[in-house]
Amino acid sequence: MNEMMNELYSIGLIPVIKIENPEDAVPLAKALIDGGLPAAEITFRTKCAAEAIANITKAYPEMLVGAGTVLTCEQVDAAIAAGSKFIVSPGLNPKVTAYCLSKGVPMLPGCSNPSDIEAALELGLTTVKFFPAEAAGGLKMLKAMAAPYGQLTFMPTGGINADNLLDYLKFNKIIACGGSFMVKDDLVKEKKWDEITALTKNAVKTMLGLEFLHMGINNDNAEEAAKGAKLFEMMFGLTLKDGNKSVFAGDAFEFMKSKGPGKCGHIAIRTNFVDRAMAYFKRMGFEFDESTITYDDKTGKPKFVYFKDEICGFAIHLLQK
User: Fold this and answer.
1) What is residue 5's DSSP assignment?
2) If exposure means fewest CB atoms within 10 Å of the residue's CB, which of 142, 265, 285, 312 is most exposed?
3) What are the backbone dihedrals phi and psi of residue 178, each rounded to the nearest 5 degrees, phi first?
């Protein structure tokens, strides 16, 4: 189950979807995958939910597909039979939750107050859904409620959108957010797969917040680095900053005093979450030099890493904002 929670965390945003036509399931799944989110919570608000889940898991077995709005043990059985890898409910039903756990499937019941949380802890859960997130008081309420409960983590759902997504994800007790803003009902009904892909890409962009930070240019010696930095100062009026290993011209250009990583140099990219960015790029076929990872002393999470391969002679590294 910890492996499943790690996968939820690495994806970060789980699309919550109501499907009324099972034939829409596969093209919708493809739209999400193309947008960078290979995950979905298919809600049991329609009669074809199990069929839709089965269609997706058959077409895309690598996709992280769960069942939402699961209210009964019979629905648990149907969700598992269809291939659901996790189950979510709007509230905490002890009987249904215990049944899920007895089946060995991760369960995230909805909790909106301390009593719900304590009932979840009694059942042995370490992660719950915070629902309905915004209506129940939002991030302020979640932070206050989470404080007494140690390492318990949450997946807030309900009212999550492109404007508040990042605020939620920056709270260290949140493993992922559930949201439907990129898969609204009308978009699914009208089969606007390209639009769903575009909205999904924007959601991933918001979550990761990838930004160019600076370019490091390799030189043979300090004199050569100083010469290059001076030229950029003259051309662009940039302020020079001399350091032990390099000379910065402004914030964007770093002239190395010796040969550093990369044939020509390196490019630094900032991101909101190095670990989630690594998972995203790995899904896209890129690899990382694991030996270069450095970790944050407080969180224990990666804060710096180089890609394994150079791009056009430049080594690329990710850096935590």
Assistant:
1) H
2) 285
3) -100, 135
SS3 149: helix
> Over the range 166-185, which residues count as b (16 or more CB within 10 Å of their CB) and which as e?
eebbeeebbbbbbbbbbbbe
Listed in sequence order, the residues at least 6 apart from 264 whose beta carbon sits closer than 8 Å to its beta carbon are 217, 218, 312, 313, 314
Cα–Cα distance, 128 to 174 (Å, whole number): 10
- Mean pLDDT calculated for residue range 78-92: 98
Q: At what angle do helices 274-283 and 2-11 cross, to 10 degrees?
A: 90
Interatomic CA distance for residues 74 and 314, integer angstroms = 55
Q: Which of 208, 9, 19 minimizes the C-alpha distance to 108?
A: 9
The pLDDT of residue 2: 84
Both tokens of 1, joined, read 């189950």
Residue (of 85, 89, 107, 98) closest to 11 by Cα position: 85
- pLDDT tens, residue by residue, 127-144: 999 999 999 999 999 999
For residues 203 and 181, the answer to whether their CB atoms sit within 8 Å is yes
Please give the Cα distance from 135 to 152 (Å, whole number): 21
- The residues annotated as belonging to the active site are 41, 129
What confidence tens digit (pLDDT) does each residue in 207-246 have?
Answer: 999 999 999 999 999 999 999 999 999 999 999 999 999 9
pLDDT at 1 > cutoff 80: no
- What is the full DSSP assignment across 169-208? HTSTTB--EEE-TTS-HHHHHTT-HHHHHHHHHHHHHHHH
Residue for token pair 């990382």: 288
Q: Token digits for 284?
A: 């896209």
47-70: per-residue pLDDT in tens? 999 999 999 999 999 999 999 999
